[in-house]
Amino acid sequence: MHAVQKKLKIVTSDMHLSAGQFIDGVQNPHEDFFFDHEFIDFLHFFSNGMYGDGCEVELVLNGDILDFLNVPIQGDFPDVVTASVALEKMHAIFKGHAEVTKALQEFVQKPGKSIVYNVGNHDLDMFFPEVREEFCRVIGGANWKREKVWVHTETEFLSYPEGIQIHHGNQFEAVHRTNYQQPLITENLPEPILYLPWGSLYVIKIINSLKLERDYVDKVKPAKLFMAISLIVDPLFTIRFILLSAFYFINTRFIYNPRRRATLRNTIAIMKQEITPFYGLEDDAREILDKSPDTHTVIIGHTHGSMQRYYQDGKTYINTGTWTRMISLDFRQLGQQTKLTFAMIQYDEQGKPRASLREWVGQHSPHKLVSF
Questions:
Q1: Which pTM does this prediction carry?
Q2: I need a labelling partner for 14 at 20 to 30 A (CA). Which of 170, 173, 340, 352 fits?
Q3: Judging by DSSP bridges, how do beta strands 56-62 and 7-12 pair with one another?
Q4: Where are the alpha helices (DSSP H) in 7-111?
């Protein structure tokens, strides 16, 4: 029999809940999350039994949980996002995943259970105070309290005094980096609009339209190798993809638009990163560990590639991966895969934490929906 746990943190990221599998009875091609019941079981497991009464469990939703970029508004994906537009998208996600919403509500209602939402690049809409307030109200109830449910936008990452940093990961890439000091554009506008980095605009205007032709276009990693192979096996689509991307980049980075920010410095950084190989964020995590002597554990999401590294100096890096379907061209993980991975931080009797990468198995139903 397992000993009763007293304190625990569980960290998950990149679930990408959109508006549900069907919108008005029609299949939604932009929904990437098909594990509602598995996640509900996950929440129930970590709030009952050995993790029930007397156990403090903090659930860290580490970015890209709600996928605002993939929620259509009247069939379109707006690139001018106001607070009212963001609220409409969030309500569509709650409606499309009503059972998950209910499970989150039930989780925070239990003693000792809390949720911290750390913003990623697909849920930047949370920078609107009205959206953060509504999320906390829906999940935590009308009389919600910060210690029970909170959306973290104050800094670029979560930092815990016991030596743990939790980053979503988008801030390490110029294409997805946002400005935490000025997340909204207000100059000469009737109402504030969300500052969207170029990567978000690219998803909205290019990826979302091309997914109707090749639904796997954003699911193959590494993306640069995928493009190289596609030039051989699917040349017409790939050439059109490249030309559309180049045109949109020029149009949004070099032509002034008061509703966007496009500095030359950031544009050069994007171009530099795009022409060099991308090996994930392990080097960035290791740099944090080297520069922060009081930090022994760094947890990141964003890349959709789960990873765990225990270093010789006793420090740890974990990437929490994704709960969506991915296709890997990496020979170490070749093929289509879905792993419901998360980080678990356990504390010993002295309060010292130990983080590990886990895969949720849970109680599977006899059958489930097949997604292609």
A1: 0.88
A2: 352
A3: parallel
A4: 36-45, 83-96, 98-109
